[in-house]
Design brief:
This protein is of the alpha/beta class. It is globular. The structure holds pantoate. The site of pantoate has 10 residues, from strand 2 and helix 6.
Length: 282
């Protein structure tokens, strides 16, 4: 498995693969890899002969006062983990490589509508940073397929929309959320939890699952279900940002005879912002 930091080395490797008519799958990450990322790499391999994993802590998707400086940078450990997977190449650029004219002068991609609510409302500019860096990675790696995790549900919808709107010739694939045995969704930010908070954290998934069961049983009083879930989490000590039931396809408000639903939640627990979701097939 090669580790490449420069655009030029990347272009040379891609030229060789393209010459051999090999398809390329990209798994964009910010590093600090866990089993959820490894599952995405394995999924990517099912769709292409070559798998590139990008490791880049993207400054433009962090707001003021967020954890950009503290975000764990673990390149050596990530390399060791990826050696045991079907990844062919790690692309680990630095900030100047990704933003050659500087972060302040970066051409920015923005997907309106889908980014207005939820994490978009609580983290202004976050999704512009995500789409801006993902489009740059797409331009550099030229993948046929790109794989994102369902845990970041709104993010994968936003990226799908960008790809469709710009006619990018890239299939976007979503990999299922990988969980600890107690239900907590794997996330790099779980390492910020104290022992006590870690003990409480699975309740987020537990509450979403119980809302999911209510919806599967035919309950459609969405507002009340959201408010109850919010109240249960707040009472337990979560600082709830949102719990929302929306149409899975586009995050619009559902009606009673809706299509598939998604229950989205975000809550702060100590230093960790936890997000999770459950899709309920109707
Ligand atoms: O989900 C992430 O880790 C990041 O938002 C992504 C997609 C790698 C862009 O920096």
């Amino acid at each position: 498995m090669r580790v490449i930091h420069s655009k030029q080395d990347l272009a040379e490797q891609l030229a060789e693969w393209q010459h051999n008519e090999e398809h390329i799958a990209l798994v964009p990450t910010m590093g600090n890899l866990h089993a959820g990322h490894i599952a995405l790499v394995e999924l990517a391999r099912e769709h292409a002969e070559r798998v590139v994993v990008s490791l880049f802590v993207n400054p433009t998707q962090f707001g003021d006062g967020e954890d950009f400086d503290d975000y764990p940078r673990t390149l050596e450990r990530d390399k060791r983990r990826l050696k045991k997977t079907p990844a062919d190449l790690i692309f680990a650029p630095d900030v100047d490589t990704m933003y050659p004219f500087g972060v302040e002068n970066a051409t920015t991609i923005s997907v309106p509508g889908l980014t207005k609510d939820f994490c978009g409302a609580s983290r202004p500019g976050h999704f512009d940073g995500v789409t801006t860096v993902v489009l740059r990675l797409f331009a550099l790696v030229q993948p046929d397929v790109a794989v994102f995790g369902q845990k970041d549900y709104q993010q994968q919808l936003v990226i799908r929309r960008m790809a469709a709107d710009l006619n990018l010739p890239i299939s976007i694939i979503t990999g299922e959320t990988i969980r600890e045995d107690d239900g907590l969704a794997l996330s790099s930010r779980n390492s910020y939890l104290t022992d006590e908070q870690r003990h409480l954290a699975p309740m987020l998934h537990e509450v979403l699952s119980s809302v999911g069961s209510e919806l599967s049983n035919g309950r459609r009083n969405f507002k009340e279900l959201e408010a109850n879930a919010n109240q249960r989490l707040s009472a337990a000590g979560f600082d709830v940002d949102y719990v929302a039931i929306r149409r899975a396809e586009n995050l619009e408000f559902p009606d009673r005879d809706c299509d598939d639903l998604v229950i989205l939640a975000a809550a702060q627990l100590g230093a960790a912002r936890l997000i999770d979701n459950i899709v309920v097939a109707i």
